[in-house]
Amino acid sequence: MASSPLSVSGHEYVSAPISSLSGSHTSVSTPPATVHDSVDSAPLPAVHALQTSTPCKRKAVSIPLSLELDRGHTGSAKRHHRSAKHVAPLIASELVQATHCSATFPEDFLLRDSWDLHVPEADFLLAAITRSLPPADRVRYHRDTGQYTCRPPAYTNAIYPEWFCRLANAIHNANNPTLAAVHSTWKCTKDTAPTGARNGELRPDFILSVDDDATRSSATPTWDSILVVGEHQSKGSQPFTQLARYAEQVFIAQPFRTAVLGIITSCSGPQLRFWRFDRAGAIGSMEFDYQSTSRQLRTIVRCLYAIPLLPPEGAGFHVSSIITNHLPPENRFPLNDSRPWKMRMSPSTLYEGEALMNRLLFIAPGIVTRGTRVWRGTLGGTSVAIKYSWRSSTRPPEESLYQLAASHNVIGLATLVAYDTYEDIATNVRFDHALVSSPLVDRHIKSHNRHLTRIILTPAGRAISGENLSPLQVAQGLFAGLVGHASLYFDGGILHRDVSPYNIIYTNKPQVAVHQWILGGTREADVVGGTMMHLHGALIDLDYAIELGSTEGRSSTAADRTGTYPFIAMAVLSNGETHRYRHDLESFLYVLLWVCCYPVTPDPNPEKRDSMDNIWPRSHPLKTWIFEDEETVIAHKVFEGLLGRFRAGFEGFKAVARRWRQTLWNLEGSGG
Fold first, then answer.
1. Which of 292, 309, 326 is the last residue in one of the domains?
2. Does the bond joining 5 to the residue before it have cis omega, within 30 degrees of 0?
3. Model pLDDT for residues 452-482, shown as the tens digit of each residue
4. What does the angle CA 542 – CA 389 – CA 509 come to, to the nearest 5 degrees?
5. Given CA atoms 189, 79, 617, 661 in this order, what sign does their dihedral have?
6. CATH number at residue 177
7. Phi (first) and psi of residue 159, to 5 degrees
8. Residue 432: pLDDT band by 50, 70, 90 thresholds?
9. How much is the average pLDDT of 206-222?
């Protein structure tokens, strides 16, 4: 059987047929192969390369889930959604550096504890499904050989996904499905895109979906009900990248997911491969041949039986900080954000009483990323922001930087209320898989391991990119962010390095009095022109901040370029200058330009075009900053014409933007 390469971001990785499933975990770097004209007769593509970690210049997280562009005269909002053209290469690129295959994948992730079948039980299930499936589905017992065989009627996309779902459901239902932690059903979705408020229109070929009253009453599945995604290989496709995109959609729809299981099935023979995606990358199984029990049919039956029985942690859910014992069994899986979830608080917290996550405010896309989720919640009667994210094990805890800032009386920064650290990927999500893997994989997970953390902050404001903020409120929030940034640096000795509209909040209630050094006066009274000054906002998010003088601060170079892509300073973006205070001030300028342009003011003459439409389209003036490469983004950050795209009410910021730009580049000695 010929090998078939999988091309990802300009690299090709060849998949080699696996003749034996014995042996240890493997991760083999394979030389580039010749591209075949057809993959019809090839085995399933598999990424066997695991490269030494290098900074990923862009990730899928850099393309936001949606961006409100135009709230028209009817009041309805038009939104930009992420397209496959832009997202798929980024997903593939971030996974190429973080993907490997394991010869013991079933034992590591599926055939564990009480939900594993032994061989006699697998044969019992095969006998049961032979009787329950119609003859056309071709699962048969051969008395002369004592073997079971399994051959689908066809491997075409029109027939195979439905056949696979019938087979998987027959396995699930053959032996007491009531043991499952949650009722679920395999469904063919190749013709129906699952729906989701934050999801794109992608169609997995088949899924394992929670089967409850809500899903049974709807003909269209939802992304927040999906437990497993499946892709049937088709001619000319890149099934691994496609499967990864489905996994990303599950992460987006289900904020408490720690891992997502996927299956790729072959279009040329009885082969399939399991994949498991988490925040450190993806682990794949070897290729399984399920045509008979003399091959790996029993293993596949055992795996498909086990998958619906996995408990929440085994299925890839974080549950340790969430209170679910008051819920009915079918709701014990924290699938979505449709309910106010109750939180467990550590005994060390100063707050007592019920803690609730009331409303999801922000969710970051991507796979190999922090996967940040932010809720507005209440803790002890106080309104708070609750942030979950996967912190790199090579980074200092975010809470330690908040504590350092507080010890130096930094102002204009959100206040840390409580923090906790939960599972990490190597030990808990991968079940110590890395401890027995190859040296290459072991080095990778040690440098790419992540810890799930929760921090609780106050105040809980609104990002200055919020659609309903007035120009005055935006100005007040931006001013508070600037004060916080300066105090963080000069008082706290901390450089932020990730200034964006999402990391600056506005609050209706003023927070703290401004330092007098900001106002240029003495520190004896907080007075400007006879008026007491307070901050209506704060700077947030210290995930990428560094303490000046620390080991990380001294070694910070282009290798760890940080920031939110559209707002990164040009010198950092282009030639990797070491991140400095001045670069953050440049990011503040791009934040100002952004919030002055979005959401786009409705155009009374949408058909009318001007000379600037090719550079700054009226419907999406700064889309280049999101979708294009570094060189194009830098070239697009020319200035004067963009001011003509400021929305109504924000014209007064033009002079501020001009002065800001002149000041920044005069400091660089390059003139205005």
1. 309
2. no
3. 999 999 999 999 998 889 999 999 999 999 9
4. 55
5. negative
6. 3.90.1570
7. -115, -40
8. low
9. 79
Is residue 66 in a domain?
no
User: What pLDDT, in 10s, does the model give residues 266-314?
Assistant: 999 999 999 999 999 999 999 999 999 999 999 999 999 999 988 888 9
Beta strands, E only, 215-270: 226-232, 259-265
257 three-class SS: strand
* Structural tokens at position 505: 């909040």
DSSP assignment letter at 52? P
* Residue 645 and residue 618 in contact, taking contact as beta carbons nearer than 8 Å: yes
Question: Can you tell me the distance from the alpha carbon of 643 to that of 652, in angstroms, rounded to the nearest whole number?
Answer: 10
* Residue 639 structure tokens: 């200035």
Q: Is 30 exposed, middle or buried (0-12, 13-18, 19+ CB in 10 A)?
A: middle
- Residue bearing the bigger pLDDT, 510 or 28: 510
What is the chain's alpha carbon radius of gyration, rounded to the nearest angstrom?
Answer: 27
Residue 324 belongs to some domain of the structure: no
Query: Confidence class of residue 588 from pLDDT cuts 50, 70 and 90?
Result: very high
Give the C-alpha distances (Å, rounded to integers) separating 377 from 321, 372, 429: 14, 16, 27
pLDDT for res 651: 93
Q: Report the number of distinct structural domains present in the chain.
A: 2
Q: What is the DSSP secondary structure assignment for residue 343, as one 8-state letter?
A: E
CA 281 – CA 368 distance, rounded (Å): 6
- The pLDDT score that the predictor gives to residue 541 is 95
pTM (2 d.p.): 0.85
Is 299 part of any domain?
yes
Residues in the chain: 672
Structural tokens at position 385? 């922001």
Any domain includes 607: yes
How close are the terminal C-alpha atoms of the chain, in Å?
A: 64
Residue ranges making up the domain that contains 640:
565-671
Which among 261, 293, 309 is the end of a domain?
309
